[in-house]
TrEMBL record:
Listed CDD domains: crotonase-like
Entry-linked PANTHER family: 3-HYDROXYACYL-COA DEHYDROGENASE-RELATED, 3-HYDROXYACYL-COA DEHYROGENASE
GO molecular function, one term: enoyl-CoA hydratase activity
Keywords: Fatty acid metabolism, Isomerase, Lipid degradation, Lipid metabolism, Lyase, Multifunctional enzyme, NAD, Oxidoreductase, Peroxisome
Native source organism of the sequence: Gemmobacter lutimaris
Cell inner membrane listed as a keyword: no
Pathway named in the protein's UniProt entry: Lipid metabolism; fatty acid beta-oxidation
Location of the 3-hydroxyacyl-CoA dehydrogenase C-terminal domain: 464-558, 592-658
InterPro entries attached to this UniProt entry: 3-OHacyl-CoA_DH_NAD-bd, 3HC_DH_C, 6-PGluconate_DH-like_C_sf, ClpP/crotonase-like_dom_sf, Enoyl-CoA_hydra/iso, NAD(P)-bd_dom_sf
Domain of life of the organism encoding this protein: Bacteria
Keyword Lyase in annotation: yes
Residue span(s) of domain 3-hydroxyacyl-CoA dehydrogenase NAD binding: 284-459
Protein name from the UniProt record: Enoyl-CoA hydratase
Compartments reported by the entry: Peroxisome
């Protein structure tokens, strides 16, 4: 392996290059290499050092492989201190991404010259830690407290142009290394020796409120804000000591472990689509409702031409206006201009009644009503109208893709593609392997998903796939607690307290009680053998006609659009308890959280056991990105492993003793606890 840092001396200039592909992370070897290179430069008696990165990055951050190990010297703060105290100026030539530790190195330099494509930021909080090598102390000294907060507290990454406006870089040039070696230097003290930034209580207050809203429950953003606040009160050395202590404490925290777990899972999911596959540039979307219009819009956004099919002219008009609305929203949000939006619509969208005039598209995605007969008709028509090579995908939520696909000419070309609403914004997509789906079809679709910027998760066929199956189980568990004594508002509050984006009953009111009702009827749940059926939601639909927000009432009453606990529903719940012969009892929030999360974990373990989900991390991605599970808990399966699988098993055993119809230990979970192996390990493919 070549040296990760090399130093070239030309006349009285030393050029130090960090060369640790792909993105020059600050591994132990890089840190040691930097120390050695600085020694070389000092011995040679140069007048200046230009510090840069090889390839497309300056330094994109810390080495993720070292996250779970004890820190090894030389530590990054030592390297940073050596640069700041170097006898001659060290100038950063920021050729690409300068993130985290990379920006901290640059902050210690006498000046920073950036390429136009450079990006800069301190994204540590997104991984549950704070900058650990002076970022929270030097950045506010350089650009002021409020602008530093805006970067550090949310981990925002900015462009070179914005960095120049903020005074974070001194210039933008095409060849920063040449300029860094020769430019005149500003006459100013090192960043760390500058006066403290002016205190700004209003900016700190604003940052705290923003963090509570955007990253609720997370400790790192709060700690980062406290450190920036300290920069305005403490001398550098004290601020740095406080920062380092906070960094080291957070590094081993549960939240950091959870956020790192998701970071790696997301990276692995994104990499699936980079393995190759045919490049698709034409698509048919059937159904231009909520999902179809958003899917068509997303496809057009990555250069795919989309023919949207509806059954009649009125439907096609509705589809056209649904699509147009999405473009209008993008214009309002500043994502595109009105002219551009108009041009894209004209160039990439056509609207059709029926299948006669369809172009020979490479993929067709169906998003019509959730009705097996309708979907089968649609696929029969697509099969007849399109080439045999066209990939056929269904966006069904609950129907069996294998039944939808019956009778197709080339079933290897068929699969499920389960988007989440709003489909153009939600990153998650479940990619469903139907019985005959070919490997090529899967890889081509994963490639498309990557182009769409999605996080694809592969899943097998079962009722609800990964996400909706766990959701169904979670709701069922909550309904059992309702009948035993809890109330909807209490369960919602408890689950929000755990960190869920919303409680289960608020969500049902938002999406409408009728869809789940129809689904339960379709599946004949009330008569399902060996199943504890709780009919409360059915009674609400049948006896009160309350279908959620769209009818102005559901599990809750609504006052000025705000949900308030409903005495009518609470009475209905109590009446059901009485009808079931149950004496209602009090539930603590903790008991609610324990039962609800344990049921998600149990169902997740079953999905792994049945081979529906490939890995625990896939389940975590689905629940975090599709169902509001708190990111900082890493997803239900990571949460379970962190709590300890033996404890989870004990809980399930005791729940099963009291309610054997609802609970049972999955064999995979039992195996994990008896062998001491993790679920990830047990599901790893050889
Ligand atoms: P929607 O009711 O908004 O849209 C359905 C559209 O399909 C309507 O515009 C209708 O005119 C059209 N349509 C019906 N029959 C047709 C036919 N034979 N040929 C052509 N067009 C036809 O429904 P939505 O919410 O967009 O759902 C569509 C599918 O996506 C369903 O299978 C649903 O389960 C699934 N889905 C929905 C999600 C959601 O959150 N809404 C999330 C994920 C999947």
């Amino acid at each position: 392996m070549s040296d990760p840092v090399f130093c070239v001396i030309e006349g009285d200039i030393a050029r130090i290059t960090i060369d640790n592909p792909p993105v020059n992370v600050t591994s132990q070897a890089v840190r040691a290499g930097l120390m050695a290179a600085l020694d070389t430069a000092e011995t040679a008696g140069v007048a200046r050092v230009a510090l840069t990165g090889a390839g497309r990055a300056f330094v994109a951050g810390a080495d993720a492989k070292e996250f779970d190990r004890p820190p090894m010297p030389p530590h990054l703060p030592d390297v940073v201190a050596r640069i700041e105290g170097f006898p001659v100026p060290v100038v950063a030539a920021i050729n690409g991404a300068a993130l985290g530790g990379g920006l901290e190195l640059a902050l210690a330099c006498a000046a920073r010259i950036a390429a136009p494509t450079a990006t800069l930021g301190l994204p540590e909080v997104t991984l549950g830690v704070v900058p650990g090598a002076g970022g929270t102390q030097r950045l506010p000294r350089l650009i002021g407290l409020a602008p530093a907060l805006a970067l550090i507290a949310e981990g925002r990454v900015i462009s070179a142009a914005e960095a120049l406006r903020l005074g974070l870089v001194d210039g933008i040039v095409d060849d920063p290394v040449v300029v860094a070696a020769t430019c005149a230097l500003p006459d100013r003290p090192a960043t760390g020796s500058r006066p403290m930034p002016v205190d700004d209580p209003a900016a700190l207050d604003k940052a705290r409120k923003l963090a509570a809203r955007r990253l609720p429950g997370q400790t790192a953003p709060v700690a980062a804000i406290d450190l920036v606040a300290a920069a305005a009160r403490l001398p550098l050395a004290e601020g740095l000591a406080q920062e380092r202590a906070t960094f080291l404490a957070l590094k081993t925290s549960d939240q950091a472990a959870a956020l790192r777990h998701l970071f790696f899972a997301e990276r692995a999911a994104a990499a699936l689509g980079r393995k190759g596959g045919d490049l698709l540039d034409s698509a048919v979307v059937v159904g231009g409702g909520t999902m179809g219009a958003a899917i068509a819009y997303a496809l057009a956004g990555v250069g795919v031409s989309v023919a949207l099919v509806e059954t009649d002219a009125a439907g096609a008009d509705r589809a056209r206006s649904n699509v147009a609305r999405l473009y209008a929203e993008a214009v309002v949000r500043g994502k595109t201009t009105a002219i551009q939006a108009e041009a894209t619509q004209a160039a990439r969208h056509t609207f059709h009644v029926g299948y006669d005039a369809l172009p020979p598209a490479q993929i067709a995605i169906e998003a019509v009503f959730e009705d097996l007969a309708v979907k089968r008709q649609v696929f029969a028509a697509l099969d007849a109208a399109l080439p045999e090579t066209t990939i056929l995908a269904t966006n069904t939520s609950y129907l069996d893709p294998d039944r939808i696909a019956e009778g197709l000419r080339a079933p290897g070309r068929f699969l499920g593609l389960h988007f989440f609403s709003p489909a153009h914004l939600m990153k998650l997509v479940e990619v469903i392997r139907a019985r005959d789906t070919s490997a090529e079809t899967l890889s081509t679709v994963l490639h498309l998903a990557a182009r769409l910027g999605k996080i694809p998760v592969r899943a097998g066929v079962c009722d609800g796939f990964i996400g909706n199956r766990i959701l169904t189980r979670y709701r069922q568990t909550c309904d059992v607690m309702l009948i035993e004594g809890a109330l909807p508002a209490q369960i919602d509050a408890a689950m929000r307290g755990f960190g869920m984006a919303m409680g289960p009953y608020e969500v049902q009111d938002l999406s409408g009680l009728d869809i789940a009702y129809a689904n339960r009827k379709r599946l004949g749940w009330a008569r399902k053998p060996g199943f504890r059926y709780i009919p409360i939601a059915d009674r609400i639909v049948e006896e009160t006609g309350r279908l959620g927000r769209k009818t102005g009432a559901g599990w809750y009453d609504y006052e000025d659009g705000k949900p308030v606990s409903s005495s009518r529903i609470n009475q209905l719940v109590a009446a059901e308890s009485a009808r079931a012969g149950l004496l209602r009892r009090l539930f603590s929030d903790e008991e609610i959280i324990t039962r609800a999360t344990t049921s998600m974990i149990e169902e997740g373990a079953r999905l792994l056991e049945e081979g529906i989900a490939d890995t625990p991390a896939d389940i975590d991605l689905v629940m975090v990105h599709g169902y509001g599970f708190p990111r900082w808990r890493g997803g239900p399966m990571h949460y379970a492993e962190r709590l300890g699988l033996a404890g989870i098993l004990g809980r399930i055993d005791s729940f099963a003793a009291a309610d054997p119809l609802s609970w049972g230990v999955p064999a995979l979970l039992r195996k994990a606890t008896t062998t001491g192996r993790s679920l990830t390990d047990l599901t790893r493919k050889p």
